[in-house]
């Protein structure tokens, strides 16, 4: 059986796979136009490099392993029509992303930006604007693996956490839960509004200018999910009107963020280059999901694999 990897692996990762599956023919660091795409039963990809034409050429493809959480860049309609099994690596981002979220929040609360600026200018001043995080409130849009870990860390700092998802169903490390319909009621009470939502038909354009303007003039909005959650001009307008007070953005409508984009020049905006999930353990954690799933696949137990995706729903 051929398994095609559309990205490079380090030598020790390749060796790990070969030792675990000596009878499998792994094809590492290939391109989507490689002829092997037509003979490979399994393709492992980050997702952005495959289009509908590639899926059509992948005549032997039965399982698509996406080494990322997002699927919006895949030709989902063509994949669904073919009945191709899709899995992803949902959950591996929770540690680095939750740590990134907390780092930005603590940096703002403890005045670290001001402290760094003072060091650069050799200025000794205790006027850093430092405040305590304890006693704050945080709304987490998408309290799944990443949102739940962020909630756990925030609770450890004495923050009351509110989780918000499509149904309002209970989620771990959330003190209270609400559905998308209840957003308007709670936004005025939140100190931090954190989105880790994926891109789905239900989440695209979920927030509008009225949502932003209903936030406190001291609130901080953080988007670590997807850039199509709102129209960026709506956020720009709201920030210029003073609500919310600031935004920390790791994802954008267009990436890389264009050099002439207003966000670059806004003091109240922190631009992060979609880097919150980066970690030296990314591939190791991906293989920790892929290897057990491949064992199940070879045993004919595809239905028992972890992180199976409903391509019609997008998650």
Which helices and strands, and how do they pair?
Blueprint: E1 2-5, H1 11-20, E2 25-27, E3 42-45, H2 52-57, E4 63-66, H3 76-82, E5 85-87, H4 94-109, H5 112-120, E6 137-141, H6 145-156, E7 160-165, E8 176-179, H7 183-186, E9 192-195, H8 209-213, E10 220-223, H9 232-240, E11 246-249, E12 269-271, H10 282-298
Parallel strand pairs: 1-2, 1-3, 3-4, 4-5, 6-7, 6-9, 7-8, 9-10, 10-11, 11-12
Helix pairs in contact: 4-6
What does this structure look like?
The chain is an alpha/beta fold and 315 residues long. It folds into two domains: 115 residues, NAD(P)-binding Rossmann-like Domain (Rossmann fold), CATH 3.40.50.720; 178 residues, NAD(P)-binding Rossmann-like Domain (Rossmann fold, 3-Layer(aba) Sandwich), CATH 3.40.50. The chain is built from ten helices and twelve strands. The strands form two sheets. Strands 8-7-6-9-10-11-12 form a seven-stranded parallel beta sheet, with helices on one face. The chain has a five-stranded parallel beta sheet with strand order 2-1-3-4-5, covered by helices on one side. The mean pLDDT is 96.
